[in-house]
Structure to design on (415 residues):
């Protein structure tokens, strides 16, 4: 396959939801930042699990053994997705927010009055208020790092100034779910580690668009959500094994000492985990179509994300160029075509004469699905003075098309 040719038709064939029509027009799904659509293989994996091996963990009978084998494979697949060396360091849960709340309480057990944590005003509240509440309970101090309003990029000098000998944790997102900014993660991790702090990354909005690499970044913990990268509603937490063993989870008895069971509370959604495994395999299959020489799952995933990034950049360039021609529209965040590598194709706008909810309703009537509000990026929305109305968010994914972008631009022009 040509390096620049993206297998769009094959991708769209995998997603049955893309065939939906609204008022006689094919639906345009720009709502992916709040949850992507899923390929048929994910649907089949969920139903197949419930039919073939629906059982709890640890039994000595056939369905439980088969279920446990699937779970082990899923942990390994997610480790490949995240670039982790140890599959046992991957933990499943209800969602990223629930996992982060529980994990923040475990870490905060070691915090003392006078200790400090650092959060940013660019993040989703699941990676802000979870830590703020844990710090409050422990008597620790919270330092907030702002962003530059002009392009919505994190102020790294302010971050550097916030770090000190009492900093225990830095919580930062890989990519903004509101304005698409990609943070310089490896640099942030180095800065934080130099100050003696641990680093917790929120990769929820990054994982659908770019390859996660916990080992290369050097972070200590990372969380993401399968329903953002074409899977079901399952949360994922990764941590360095030495820290997962050191910190004490909140669990009912009996509590397993082995990873990953040590951090997984209650009975997991095994059917959801089966769907998560299928979502990773879908991405790997896409990578093999783009680069047939990819000889293992991690290599195939890397190939998939290279292709996704090239294709999504084309769509994002088209969208930003079209929005620039609409004098009523303001784009928040990076807009320069030369800086597309610094953002994912999530574009949030406001309109001079229409509120975000009015725009969302008018687009919905035309079969175009887009979210309005603050998307739980409350610190960002407040900092920009956009509360209570927020923004209109246009979220492109690799199953979107150039024709859909043109439909969107025409609809916005009609406003």
């Amino acid at each position: 396959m040509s390096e620049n040719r993206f297998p769009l038709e094959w991708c769209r064939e995998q997603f049955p939801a893309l065939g939906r029509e609204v008022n006689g027009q094919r639906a345009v799904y720009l709502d992916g930042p709040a949850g992507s659509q899923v390929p048929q293989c994910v649907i089949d994996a969920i139903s197949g699990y419930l039919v073939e091996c629906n059982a709890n963990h640890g039994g000595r009978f056939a369905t439980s053994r088969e279920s446990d084998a699937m779970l082990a494979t899923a942990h390994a697949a997610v480790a490949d997705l995240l670039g982790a060396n140890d599959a046992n360091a991957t933990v499943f849960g209800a969602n990223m927010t629930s996992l982060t709340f529980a994990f923040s309480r475990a870490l905060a057990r070691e915090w003392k009055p006078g200790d400090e944590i650092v959060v940013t005003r660019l993040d989703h509240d699941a990676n802000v208020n979870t830590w703020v509440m844990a710090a409050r309970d422990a008597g620790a101090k919270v330092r907030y790092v702002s962003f530059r309003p002009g392009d919505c990029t994190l102020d790294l000098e302010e971050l550097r100034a916030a770090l000190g000998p009492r900093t225990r944790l830095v919580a930062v997102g890989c990519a903004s779910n509101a304005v698409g900014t990609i943070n310089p993660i490896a640099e942030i991790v180095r800065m934080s580690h130099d100050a003696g702090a641990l680093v917790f990354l929120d990769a929820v909005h990054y994982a659908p668009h770019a390859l996660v690499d916990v080992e290369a970044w050097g972070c200590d913990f990372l969380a993401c959500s399968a329903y953002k990268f074409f899977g079901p509603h399952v949360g994922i937490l990764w941590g360095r094994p030495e820290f997962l063993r050191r910190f004490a989870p909140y669990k009912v008895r009996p509590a397993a000492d082995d990873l990953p069971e040590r951090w997984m509370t209650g009975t997991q959604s095994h059917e959801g985990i089966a769907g998560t495994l299928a979502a990773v395999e879908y991405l790997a299959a896409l990578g093999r179509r783009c680069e047939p020489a990819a000889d293992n799952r991690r290599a195939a995933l890397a190939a998939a994300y290279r292709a996704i990034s090239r294709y999504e950049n084309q769509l994002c360039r088209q969208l930003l160029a079209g929005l620039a021609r609409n004098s009523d529209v303001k784009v928040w965040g990076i807009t320069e075509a030369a800086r597309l590598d610094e953002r994912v194709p999530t574009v949030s706008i406001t309109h001079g004469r229409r509120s975000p909810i009015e725009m969302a309703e008018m687009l919905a009537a035309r079969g175009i699905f887009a979210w309005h509000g603050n998307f739980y990026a409350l610190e960002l929305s407040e900092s920009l003075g956009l509360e209570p109305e927020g923004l209109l968010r246009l979220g492109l994914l690799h199953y979107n098309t150039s024709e859909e972008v043109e439909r969107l631009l025409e609809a916005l022009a009609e406003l």
